[in-house]
Write a structure and sequence with these properties.
The termini are far apart. Helix 7 packs across helix 8 and helix 9 packs across helix 10. The chain has 3 domains: 133 residues, Rossmann fold (3-Layer(aba) Sandwich); 220 residues, Rossmann fold (3-Layer(aba) Sandwich); 92 residues, GMP Synthetase, Chain A, domain 3. The protein is built from 14 helices and 27 strands. The radius of gyration is 22 Å and the shape is globular. By secondary structure, the protein is of the alpha/beta class. The relative contact order is 0.09. Helix content is 29%, strand content 28%. A 9-stranded mixed beta sheet has the order 2-1-10-9-11-12-13-14-15, sandwiched between helices. Strands 6-5-3-4-7-8-19 form a 7-stranded mixed beta sheet, sandwiched between helices. Strands 16, 17, 18, 20, 21 and 22 form a 6-stranded antiparallel beta sheet that branches. Its EC number is 6.2.1.26. This is O-succinylbenzoate--CoA ligase. Keywords: Ligase.
Length: 477
């Protein structure tokens, strides 16, 4: 297949590829030209192994990434929020031979035993003769990202060009494409939800409004004034946007708030419904190159709380004790499809465990209703087993979030001599008058006794990763 960016630059050279908050724009033709130029300079310092990129969202990062595709080198994306020790370990695990980084991380690079170059220094260097790929081998590795590593050592997920292509096409078949679509991207490009939007932009010929990070004021302004039509969010950023919207309304051109990153609390969905904000729930992960299940717009209100049905080229089923689960029976979500990873780089044992009979075992828990709609319940590793009963943290969090004054809630298990484990809750409130006693009474009214938290702790904030997903394993008393 012809190189995607080259093809897009030929088809729609003057169409805006990326729009920045400082009003700077770059067309697809300019993006392709600058990426090829950067590739001829990058080639001078890198000839073997993989390249890691360490940068926040920026035009430079997008150019550097596409440059790597032109010299056919897989890119390992490093999470900017990790420590130097973690970067070093990930570079070892993913065969990184060169690191390119944004200037702000210069001081951190000195302790890493891998040749490192700032993006600015490469851009200012001299070009060399090098082969610029005119074609893309769909089966070759395009990118690698590490799983969040909530338990054990994070694993490098291999994502092929075919994975990314399949994900983008399947998403378009589900959400549709409008001539005026503009996708606001504030998720980190080093996470799949962010990177997948870059592919959609080039494959669709769609403009992307790029922000360095989530900022509710900037996002709100972009939706209201910059003709943004789609945005990807997680529950906590969605909640902040709804608070910012207050009694207002988004423009009619805004057609989709794609909500992923874990089970969505029902109070949040109901709040969005009241405000006529078009929430479309989705389910996906690094291993599926972004979404693999999405709720169609026509079912969004009828199936409130569901992540939808598998995308056109994907398959999904629920397994319980090694067999296919019945309707409404909770079990492990397993998936198939061309957007699913080949596996983890250099992790044969992990691959054997994750891939069984051509199905990828996600480690997530959910169920399918009678119509085949997926409802995601929780991460299997977050499951609390109390007195032999399964307790799902997301269910308790949803009840806590329904109490007026509670902004955030997180639940995890605590070891208990009598019950094995018991749930413990951590909350962030907007009202300092909210008490633990009130919250416990509220939980007792809405939950079975074994699901009621044994303790409630108040926090100023809850631990979240770069995409604002709650990290329950970091919750502590």
């Amino acid at each position: 297949m012809e190189h995607w960016l080259t093809k897009r630059a030929h088809l729609t050279p003057d169409l805006v590829a990326l729009e920045l908050s400082n009003d700077k724009t770059i067309t697809f033709a300019q993006l392709a030209e600058q990426a090829k130029d950067f590739a001829t300079k990058l080639y001078r310092v890198h000839q073997r192994g993989h390249i890691a990129i360490l940068s926040d969202n920026s035009l430079d990062l997008a150019i550097a990434f596409w440059a790597c595709t032109y010299i056919q080198v897989p890119v390992v994306f490093l999470n900017t929020r990790l420590t130097t020790r973690e970067w070093k370990r990930q570079c070892e695990d993913a065969d990184v031979q060169t690191i390119i980084f944004a200037d702000k991380y210069t001081d951190s690079m000195s302790s890493l035993p891998v040749p490192s170059y700032s993006i600015a220094s490469i851009r200012m260097s001299t070009s060399v003769e090098c082969p610029i790929a005119s074609q893309i081998n769909l089966d070759s590795i395009c990118s690698m990202m590490f799983t969040s590593g909530t338990t054990g050592r994070a694993k490098p997920v291999m994502q092929t060009f075919h994975n990314h292509w399949s994900s983008a096409v399947a998403s378009a078949l589900n959400l549709g494409l409008m001539p005026n679509d503009k996708w606001l991207l504030c998720l980190p490009l080093f996470h799949i939800g962010g990177l997948s939007t870059l592919f959609k932009s080039v494959i669709y010929g769609m403009s992307v409004y790029l922000l360095e990070r989530f900022d509710e004021e900037k996002v709100h302004h972009a939706i209201m004034e910059r003709k943004v039509t789609i945005i990807s969010v997680v529950a906590v950023t969605c909640s902040r946007l709804l608070e910012r919207l207050a009694d207002g309304h988004y423009p009619s051109a805004f057609r989709c708030m794609l909500l992923g990153g874990g089970p969505a609390p029902k109070p949040l969905l109901e709040k969005a419904k009241e405000k006529n904000v078009p929430i479309v729930q989705t389910y996906g992960m690094t291993e599926t190159s972004s979404q693999i299940v999405t709720l169609s717009e026509q079912d969004a209100l009828r199936k409130l709380g569901s992540a939808g049905k598998p995308l056109f080229s994907a398959s999904l089923q629920i397994e319980y004790d090694g067999s296919r689960a019945k309707a409404n029976q909770i079990g492990e979500i397993v998936v198939q499809g061309p957007m699913v990873t080949k596996g983890y780089y250099g992790r044969e044992e992990a691959n054997k465990e994750a891939f069984q009979q051509d199905w990828f075992h996600t480690g997530d828990l959910g169920y399918l209703d009678e119509e085949g709609f997926l409802f995601v319940v929780d991460r299997r590793n977050d499951l609390i087993i109390s007195g032999g009963e399964n307790v799902y943290p997301a269910e308790i969090e949803e009840v806590l979030l329904s109490y007026e004054g509670v902004k955030e809630a997180g639940v995890t298990g605590r070891e208990d001599n009598k019950w094995g484990q018991v749930p413990v809750a951590y909350v962030v409130t907007a009202d300092e008058n909210v008490t633990a006693e009130e919250l416990l009474l509220h939980c007792q009214e809405h939950l079975a006794s074994f699901k009621v938290p044994k303790e409630i702790h108040f926090r100023n904030q809850l631990p979240r990763n770069a995409t604002n997903k709650l990290q329950r394993h970091l919750l502590k008393g």
